[in-house]
Amino acid sequence: MSQVSPALERELPVDDHPAGLYSSSRVAETVPCLSSIGEKEIDFFLEHGYLAVERGFSLEAVQAAAAAVDDLIDGKRADFRGVQFEAGLGDKADLTREQRRIGVRKLMSFTDYDDRLKVLAENADLLNALDQLLGAAPDLFQDMALLKPPRGREKPWHQDCAFFNIPHDTPVVGVWIALDKATASNGAMHVITGSHRNGPEEHFKRRDWQLCDTEIDVANDVVVPLEPGGVLFWHGLTHHGSPPNGTEFRRRALQFHYRPHGVSETSVKQRMDIFGGDVRGAEC
To answer: What share of the chain is helix, strand, coil (3-state, %, to 5)?
Structure first.
């Protein structure tokens, strides 16, 4: 874990989310490992919209994945173009290697560029769990690394299906794998338990593409702290978000999205007809 330098700290954005939008008073229950997921755990997921696993992957696998992330940031695969920096960093050419690693917010579409990352997405125990959660053979259709830097900004409350051009009733499961310890202080994931049962909801372009702040049921907020190798599954319609990283260290995670095999794409218009609050003239 790398500490932020004073020079880079001046460039990182100031977060402006409303006070009280996240609560850490309720902590997620966990199951021990991926292979312990059975009927009881599936029922919990269907009711609550999430399932947390204490130890999904070994420390060795997590350390290898973290090294792979840094290698991609460092440019060791010259053909990889999926690096996205935190807003407000200025000229990236002037950053040192350590500043680049701290300043990157996201990597996109990396599994074909490093087997140390691909092996996690194709792990047999993970795919077996997804088969149960989806009720069908899983297809990976999005892979990213979420690297919330020191002082890194919030990811506002949202539903993942609002980002995907697929039929709105398609079951989607997100998978979040902690590479560093995720805590209430450094931007661990939060979920609104049971919110997926409300169906698709309007999203608005505010701090991000997000649910309206006033519609968040903070009383049912559950924070999901995880040790490295811990895993969070959540339903594609579950309200979830991540508050700012209030520490001096990175909070790195991998995130995969799976859908049932054979699902066809729809259009942006079809998605926005369902989720596009601004487009549809809704108020927030």
So the answer is: 30, 25, 45
pLDDT tens by residue, the chain, 284 residues: 444 333 333 344 446 788 899 999 999 999 999 999 999 999 999 999 999 999 999 999 999 999 999 999 999 999 999 999 877 776 677 788 998 898 899 999 999 999 999 999 999 999 999 999 999 999 999 999 999 988 889 999 999 999 999 998 999 999 999 999 999 999 999 999 999 999 999 999 999 999 999 999 999 999 999 999 999 999 999 999 999 999 998 999 999 999 999 999 999 999 999 999 887 778 88
Structure tokens at 8: 């880079």
Domain definitions of the chain by residue range: 24-58+122-275
pTM of the predicted structure, to 2 decimals: 0.92
Question: Which CATH superfamily includes the segment(s) 24-58+122-275?
Answer: q2cbj1_9rhob like domain (2.60.120.620)
